[in-house]
From TrEMBL:
Boundaries of every Haem-binding uptake Tiki superfamily ChaN domain copy: 51-240
InterPro entries cross-referenced by the UniProt entry: Cofac_haem-bd_dom, Fe3_uptake_reg_CjrA_prd
Name this polypeptide is given: Chain X
Source taxon at top rank: Bacteria
Record PROSITE patterns: PROKAR_LIPOPROTEIN
Pfam families registered for this protein in UniProt: Cofac_haem_bdg
Amino acid sequence: MKLFMNKCIFLVVPFLFFGCSSLNTPNSLEQITFNIINNNTSKEISFNEFIDEILKYDIVLIGEEHNNHKHILVETKIIEALNSKKDVEVVLEMMSVDKQIKIDNAKINGYENKNLLKEIDWSDSWDKSYYKRLVLFIFNSKIDLVAGNLSKSEIQTIFNGAYPLQGKASTTFQVKEKIKDMIIDTSHKIDDTKTIDKFVQIQQYKDRRMADKLVSSNKTAILIAGKYHTRKDIGIPLHIEDFNKSKTFISIGLQTNIKNEYVDYSFKIK
């Protein structure tokens, strides 16, 4: 049983909270179109208007579906536009913090495009065919890349029994229950209450770690993470509030069928 649960930690957890979509593989932004809705005004805006509006924020949260290549293209476009106007850095859920030294070494020592993902020890849990384009763009644009996620050893420690996460907005009973319901909805193979509670704790520790990286940045920090992590009602926004109320942030949802109250801007990608 213990062996089975250990496998669950590293095989189930990476896919529990990602969301699903059909496989989409356009080659460039010219092959996709999208509409942008400002959910605070319920008005459709242009991409240039969108960029002008989000420039004033310290933190930009972008929630994606991890197997939708269109999202990678839109993320690249947003990062490129913001980087042309101010200094930015990108925090990735897909990189665990123990790999930051490899990221930094690749920047210092140089790299070949074809070998970059190997140089930074990119995990096979994240499809290289999707993320290679994004990572190469970040590196080749001289944008700082920050590993934002927990390491495997940290996840194991939390699963085995870590001190409860402390917070005001982020750790309420209501927030934890919403995360628990989401886990049950997205993974019908887990029905043990204690195990689900541990996954809730892992999810919250991941959100806290990414929030820490974001609020610690002295540049505009852009996060690329799964759609549940960036929701205002259960995710990283609550941890940012607990960390540092002076940091301003905005949440962007690229996924379909997201409630307006979960994010500030919705992309309707075609």
